[in-house]
Amino acid sequence: MTALTAIGDGLREGFFMFWETFWALVLGFGLSGAVQAFVTRGQMERALGREGEGRLGRATFLGMVSSSCSYAASAMAKSLFAKGADFTAAMVFMIASTNLVLELGIVLALLIGWQFTASEFVGGILMVALLALVSRFTLPHSLVESARRKLEPGHATSGEHQHADMPESAGSSLAPLRVRIRTLAGWSDAATYAMADITMLRREMLIGFGVAGFLAALVPTYVWSIVFISHHGVLTSVENAIIGPLIAIVSFVCSIGNVPLAAALWKGGISFGGVVSFVFADLITLPLLLIYRKFYGGRLTLWILGAFWLVMSVTGLVIGALFSFLHLVPTTRPIRIVPESFAWNYTAVLDVIFLVVLAALYYLYRNRSHFGGGVGYAIDPVCGMQVEMATAPAQAEYQGNVFWFCSDRCHTKFARMPTRYAKGDLAGQTTEASRSREDAMKNPDQSEETVVDVVCGMTVVPSTAAAHRSQGGSEYHFCSLGCAETFDANPSRFAGVESERS
After folding, report:
1. Average pLDDT of every residue of the chain
2. Distance in angstroms (rounded) separating the CA atoms of residues 268 and 47
């Protein structure tokens, strides 16, 4: 086999892995974007900030309906913890956010079988329970309190913007779900979240599909037999479940990107439980461990590494044994993970349909300001993620503009090379406009009297509103022409929406 032939085989395998899962990725990101737009970060923070026996259940559910990006999940978990959430609940949120999401399950089913999807969801619940148990008996209270003090306003990570003193209404400019879900403004925000997640994870997916394609096409079976013990019963299961997370740690690929790698490992000979532990271990890759060290300190990061590795390996062992007992483990391994050529089948039809869906999402995203979307949001100039300005973990000023970031990691990258990111459509608000907005949030009583845009829920000042309408003896004011046009199309829809002065 020549070098060019080998490269071609690897690229072809990686491409058809992507082709086989394209429609599922668009579906997953689209649904995730909708949930993120209609269940805001502020609402999540308030839900997990409450004490009570149900906090781990709430953390699991909110993680399942949030972004699947490991980096975004780690930033959100840190934010929840800093705002008073239980540390274990924050870690559970992070696990659910990256391992119990819809798109992960669909891609697993398409590439290596529904049994792996079932194992991830059953295993995810088991891993949450095991982490709660491990935390109860091994998590040092002193380390948690030390980490919490480090994240308090007086000791915030460099560049982090604190919002603890803002009134609750200032932290969210979004209308109730029943209003936003009926507007193009709400759906344009959902589309922006979806496109932002795709932008943010494109590198992980590119690496994941590319590396997996080369591993599946080029690595001989005998090489895998050196890495993974086989045909030794319990010893095989234990070794594979332990080595799975190790491969994840050094692979640097997280989120959806590690699913194609899991397919390559399954083809290569790793046990069923080993695949499960590998997929779960996207939360302890080396880049994320460095982020945890910055957030919580070195000692607590070592606890996270040890506890997660233990829980992931034990979960892989238990799920492997359970599915073997139930005869759910596939008895054969694929010679090829995906087809060698195009075929007009259900996959091709779905891919074409969801290509149109992707184009519609992109259109809504690019025209969000016209539809009244984007109010209260900013795009992280480093990773492309959409963030709520009022709850952004970090922000920075550069050349008279303010930029918001999804995490301290992105803020640090921006600080190192601001000229690379401070350009184009991602340029932030002017410093003067940003400060005026924040002053109004912090001192609402000193601002001009405001009203609520009945379409999108944005708080607006009547004298500076983008549009005004009179209907049924009432005056309505809008943040954008898009919201005014939505109102004009059917004023009766918003007749019952509260629009009193605030």
Report:
1. 76
2. 43
Q: Which of 158-162, 285-289, 494-498 has the lowest mean pLDDT?
A: 158-162
Tell me how far the alpha carbon of residue 351 is from its chain's centroid. Answer: 23
CA 291 – CA 20 distance, rounded (Å): 33
| pLDDT value for 303 | 95
Cα torsion at 243, 249, 251, 255 (round to 10°)?
Answer: 110
**Antiparallel, parallel or unpaired: β 429-430 and 451-452:** unpaired
- Report which of residues 54 and 255 the model is more confident about: 54
**What count of Cα atoms within 13 Å lies in the side-chain half-sphere of residue 226?**
5
88 near 132, Cβ under 8 Å?
Answer: yes
Integer CA distances (angstroms), 51 to 46, 357, 414, in order:
11, 41, 36
Spell out the alpha helix ranges (H) of 372-407: none
How many separate helices (H) and strands (E) can be counted in the chain? 21, 9
Helix (H) or strand (E) holding 106: helix 102-112
Question: What is the per-residue DSSP string for 249-262?
Answer: HHH---GGGHHHHH
Q: Are strands 386-388 and 401-405 parallel, antiparallel or unpaired?
A: unpaired
- Residue 470 DSSP code: E
Higher pLDDT, 261 or 411: 411
Instruction: Count CB neighbours of 397 within 10 A.
Output: 14
- CA–CA separation, 387 vs 477, rounded Å? 25
Encode pLDDT of 102-151 as tens digits. Answer: 777 887 888 888 999 999 899 999 999 999 999 999 998 888 888 887 66
Q: Is 64 helix (H, G, I), strand (E, B) or coil?
A: helix
Cβ proximity of 452 and 458 under 8 Å: yes
